[in-house]
């Protein structure tokens, strides 16, 4: 079964975009001579698990050659949840849709296939890709990441999720609540519970417990998909990452 996909390439320019004059945002910055968003689309296209690809981007970039392989380009929103609504508009409410960040320079068929197969097999409403540290260090040791210490090991988030459009209203409410509470430990504890925050702080929170709490918050089946392909989590967050990616792809090309 092939799933539709949404690539989020919206938002204003940032420090990464400043490296390339004229880039609408970092999605359009070239690494190894190819815009990041084009590399992401290429990775999705390489997978037989992906059907239609909708890209959400600033209207000023709608005709950019980097988006030539997208099935459709739609305008972005002021906030990421609004861009997500734009990208998923008109999709079947209960059909799983893959949502990808636009800054995944190494995304390939193996990474996409592994994630989609696991998400579909678990019949989740929201599936979140995560990667254990050892897989990243084996493949891309020069790239820094932020790691969450869980009972099972240290993990980072991947650049892909899968979700059903039916969960968007509740997801929007939860994201708003998290945004309001992000600087208040008391309010965060109200959302997650003191017990969960305490266990996370000392690295004793299990993935299963985190999934259960997220499922209760969203009123949906939420699960972390433990991936083994490091390409799913290699992204470009900072200007310094561009040089690292250029060096990696230049080395690969040589």
From TrEMBL:
Keywords: Transferase. Gene3D superfamilies: Spore Coat Polysaccharide Biosynthesis Protein SpsA, Chain A (3.90.550.10). GO terms for molecular function: nucleotidyltransferase activity. Residues 5-135 form the MobA-like NTP transferase domain. InterPro entries: MobA-like_NTP_Trfase, Nucleotide-diphossugar_trans. The keyword RNA-binding does not apply. Signal peptide: none annotated. It comes from the Bacteria. The keyword Transferase applies. PANTHER family: MOLYBDENUM COFACTOR GUANYLYLTRANSFERASE (PTHR19136). This is MobA-like NTP transferase domain-containing protein. The lineage of its organism: Bacteria, Bacillati, Vulcanimicrobiota, Vulcanimicrobiia, Vulcanimicrobiales.
């Amino acid at each position: 079964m092939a799933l539709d996909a949404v690539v989020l390439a919206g938002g204003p320019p940032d420090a990464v975009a400043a490296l390339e004059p004229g880039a609408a945002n970092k999605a359009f910055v070239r690494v190894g001579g190819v815009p990041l968003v084009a590399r992401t689309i290429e990775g999705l296209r390489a997978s037989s698990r992906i059907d239609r690809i909708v890209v959400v981007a600033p209207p000023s970039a709608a005709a950019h050659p980097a988006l030539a392989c997208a099935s459709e380009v739609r305008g972005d929103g002021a906030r990421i949840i609004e861009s997500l609504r734009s990208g998923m508009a008109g999709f079947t409410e209960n059909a799983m849709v893959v949502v990808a960040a636009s800054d995944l320079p190494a995304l390939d068929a193996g990474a996409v296939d592994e994630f989609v197969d696991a998400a579909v097999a678990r019949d989740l409403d929201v599936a979140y890709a995560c990667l254990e540290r050892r897989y990243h260090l084996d493949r891309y040791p020069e790239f820094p990441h932020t790691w969450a210490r869980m009972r099972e090991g240290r993990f980072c988030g991947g650049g892909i999720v899968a979700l059903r459009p039916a969960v968007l209203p509740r997801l929007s409410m939860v994201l708003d609540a998290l945004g309001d509470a992000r600087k208040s430990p008391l309010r965060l504890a109200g959302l997650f519970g003191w017990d969960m925050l305490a266990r996370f702080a000392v690295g004793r929170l299990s993935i299963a417990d985190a999934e259960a709490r997220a499922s209760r918050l969203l009123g949906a089946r939420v699960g972390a998909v433990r991936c083994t392909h490091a390409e799913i989590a290699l992204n470009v967050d900072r200007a310094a990452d561009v040089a690292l990616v250029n060096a990696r792809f230049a080395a690969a090309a040589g």
